[in-house]
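Hey, sorry to bother you again with one of my protein questions. I've been staring at a protein lately and its backbone has me curious. I owe you a coffee for this, so here goes:
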Amino acid sequence: MTPIVKESLIKKGVPLASSIQKQLIKIQGTLTSSIQLRGEEPQEPYYYSFIRLKRQKIDLPVIFKTKENDQLTKPNLKKSDEVELTGHYSNSEKSVRKSFTATSYQLLSEKRIRKKCSGCLDIFTCSPAKNYDYCSKCELNGSRYLNKDSPCSECDGSGLIKFKGQPLRCCKLCYLPKQEKPAPKYLAK
């Protein structure tokens, strides 16, 4: 008896649909349609969209197979989002058009906001999710946020401030009130 050997067809480093193991690859592009749910009875339902890859004119169909707790989840993406998809190319016997099956995704285009630094008063940009109070140069005691629960907004109540690349110094807000001099006796009644 001779053993049966299954070959994997590879074209330019990417295994084709007839291959047993599919190599995961990453592609980047812009979504050109909203995410839609498609449910065909013989197959399990799936989410799909179209992506335009960089330096290409045609849109590539994308099937999203993202699951959470073994449940199909709708990707939190919308039309015109710039994304990086991880998955593999699929060739269907029913269709001539190549498609991409994504197992995970990452949003590349994140909105930015302009803010004024609380330390040096320069303008800097950050994401709305992070919403920093200090720019990266004025990182205060290892943090870019004002501590609103602390008795002192500048030094966190320790009396010392450490800016990145500068020597340790006393806090002006905590240190100055301690330096108040008592009123001279001749002015007191």
